[in-house]
Design goal:
heterodimer, A: two-stranded antiparallel sheet, 9 strands, B: alpha/beta, Rossmann fold
Chain lengths: ~90, ~270
């Protein structure tokens, strides 16, 4: 069982239209870097210099990682990670 | 205020609900709701709140109705093309329910006018289409401690949250900053499924009615994410951010300003 990663609509064109992809356990930033190798371009849309961009939120099982250990929050198999960008009617990431 | 025979009939399906009753309907009839934007979200929100008999509704929009709006902005029609959107929506809503007093503001909401505009209303609904307005509305509502029901849409996805200043987190607790202009490509190309604002707007209208009635659990401290393609409703927690620039312990935003950058001008 892997980590489930929910991809928001604006980023699905980088994941071949998939709304959910699988990742590996580890820290959130390791997970995102690994996903970027599989889906090039995804990493830089979410993070910059190893930090999650401030207008994108990452949740591990409904919990905002900014209030856990941020990028170093551990994710394990079976966890659900949601990437949620700010949207405002018509704008996209 | 007592209901007329006609009003008793009009609102009978509300009045029969134990959670509403005559008392609740009177609350609805004396409520004042301010809607930012008479577009995709503002139309369904205004439509249902008008049907519900909300006493006063204000609609602010400085855009005019265009043909490309009619795929989703259901209060407008081919007959009102070119008309100011708030004015066009008012015409529709008045036909639905003449009990409701609808005010139209044909201006763009900004840091100078927002406080005066919203201060006499009980609840604000954000149906704006750009980040500067979204943050401005949030900041003004936090300053005035005004409940705010926020909704946003994009392509096949929607987000809704209810902000109760003083009690729960605000929009800046959720997203500290708006996306920088460089990462926001063309807005017109993004597209939106026409029915999506209907789903999100009716969720917002539901939140408004719950707040007016004081019933149920408001969508406070949580972000509801609707994914139309996957038919998913997901909720994530929004913790109150003690470092929030507007509602944190040491707020850095002390007055309202207009963003000089157009993050996403439609």
């Amino acid at each position: 069982m892997a980590v489930k990663v929910k991809i928001p609509v604006p980023l699905q064109r980088l994941t071949q239209g998939k709304d959910e992809v699988e990742g590996e356990s580890g820290t959130v930033i390791e997970l995102i870097n690994a996903l970027d190798r599989k889906y090039p371009g995804l990493g830089e849309r979410i993070s910059d210099g190893g930090k999650i961009r401030r207008f994108v939120n990452v949740y591990v099982n409904e919990e905002d990682i900014r209030f856990l250990k941020s990028e170093n929050t551990e994710v394990k198999d079976g966890d659900e990670v949601s990437i949620v960008p700010a949207i405002a009617g018509g704008c996209f990431l | 205020m007592d209901f007329t025979e006609e009003q008793l009939q009009r609102y009978s399906r509300h009045i029969i609900l134990p959670e509403v009753g005559g008392k609740g309907q009177k609350k609805i009839s004396s409520a004042k709701v301010f809607i930012v934007g008479a577009g995709g979200l503002g139309c369904p929100v205004g439509f249902y709140l008008t049907a519900a008999g909300v006493g006063d509704i204000a609609l602010i929009d400085n855009d005019n109705v265009e043909l490309s709006n009619l795929q989703r902005q259901i209060a407008h029609s081919t007959k009102t093309l070119g008309m100011n959107k708030a004015e066009s929506a008012k015409k529709t809503f008045e036909t639905l329910n003449p009990d409701v007093n609808i005010s139209v503001i044909k201006e763009r909401i900004n840091s100078k006018n927002i406080i005066d505009l919203i201060k006499d209303y009980d609840i604000v609904v954000d149906g704006s289409d750009n980040f500067p307005t979204r943050y401005l509305v949030n900041d003004a509502c936090v300053m005035l401690k005004k409940p705010l029901v926020s909704g946003a849409i994009l392509r096949f996805e929607g987000q809704v949250t209810t902000i109760l200043p003083g009690e729960g987190p605000c929009y800046r607790c959720l997203f500290e900053v708006p996306p920088p202009p460089g990462l926001v490509p063309s807005c017109q190309e993004a597209g939106v499924l026409g029915v999506l604002p209907g789903v999100v707007g009716t969720l917002q209208a539901t939140e408004v009615l719950k707040l007016i009635l004081g019933k149920g659990k408001p969508l406070c401290g949580q972000l509801l994410i609707y994914d139309a393609l996957g038919v998913n409703f997901r909720r994530v927690k929004i913790p109150k951010n003690s470092d929030c620039a507007i509602c944190g312990k040491n707020p850095t935003i002390k007055e309202l300003t207009d963003s000089t950058e157009e993050y996403c001008a439609l």
